[in-house]
Amino acid sequence: MQSISVRALVVLVVLFSVNAAQAAPKAELWPRWQKHDPSNSQKIDHGAWDRFLREFVVANHPSGINRVRYQAVTPEAVKSLKGYLRALQDLAISNYNRAEQKAFWINLYNALTADIIISRFPLASIRDVNISPGLFTRGPWGAKVLAIEGEKLSLDDIEHRILRPIWKDNRAHYAVNCASLGCPNLQPTAYTADNTEALLEKGAREYINHPRGVTIKNGKLQVSSIYVWFQEDFGGAAEGLMEHWQNYAEGKLTDALSNYSGGLAHDYDWRLNGVGSEP
């Protein structure tokens, strides 16, 4: 990577981050959830969520974005999804090992998001779900919508106070799905302790090699706003971002990134990731 590329990206990423920092939650550890039991080999059953995903997620959509057939979800599927969420809330997750916990929190986030969308469908964007506290907030992320081990939690709690600070794995951004076209793919199978690593790698590669993730457009590097909002998770500097993209880039994108020496732009598509949504 040429040094001029890094310098240009540093300037632009810093400028974008000034505004983004006001909106993007920081990773702030909730110490209560650090407890785990490495000796516990018990498995959590994610079968109900896996069946939901296999039935309603379209993984071969022409857009290259996994879509959800929200309009096709049956009352029986809704009942099963809600039963799955109740079952997760009945677990004493602090007694499980780290691998089971990681899959648990990812699946909980995604299943809860799906339930929120389905219960209010049809809608154009998850940001139309105005249940978060605060006068100027949009979306469901700040609302305390369930309880684990007696603690009320929000989607923000799961992502920014548990997943990000405990595992410090930037690939978590490719796992949690916000039901939007700009978001990394909702995988068509549930996360488990056994497949989490493979699914995280798959999600990163799919996203970075899709135009909504990283692309060169009109001679300028165009990336998802995720990389600006959460720059701290990708090394906190342009070098870290470029290295991350290059680790997963394939084909023409590999050469484009290696030879790039311009600026950076970013955006994010908040339209619902349903079948029939554009593009």
Notable characteristics:
279 residues; mainly alpha; 3-stranded mixed beta sheet; globular; disordered N terminus
Describe what this molecule looks like in 3D.
The protein has 279 residues and is mainly alpha-helical. It has one domain. 40% of the residues lie in helices and 8% in strands. It has helices at 3-20, 47-56, 75-89, 98-118, 155-167, 196-208, 226-229, 238-248, 252-258; strands at 57-58, 67-68, 146-148, 151-153, 214-217, 220-224, 264-267. The chain has a 3-stranded mixed sheet. Helix 3 (75-89) runs antiparallel to helix 4, helix 4 (98-118) runs antiparallel to helix 5 (155-167) and helix 8 runs antiparallel to helix 9 (252-258). It starts with a helix and ends in a 12-residue tail after the last strand. 37% of the residues are buried.
Q: How many separate domains make up the residues?
A: 1
Distance between the terminal alpha carbons, to the nearest Å? Answer: 33 Å
* Relative helix content: 40-55%
Main pleated sheet: 3 strands, mixed
* Beta-strand fraction estimate: 5-15%
Number of helices: 9
Secondary structure elements and their pairing?
Blueprint (H helix, E strand, L loop, with lengths): L2 H18 L26 H10 E2 L8 E2 L6 H15 L8 H21 L27 E3 L2 E3 L1 H13 L28 H13 L5 E4 L2 E5 L1 H4 L8 H11 L3 H7 L5 E4 L12
Parallel strand pairs: 6-7
Antiparallel strand pairs: 1-2, 3-4, 5-6
Helix pairs in contact: 3-4, 4-5, 8-9
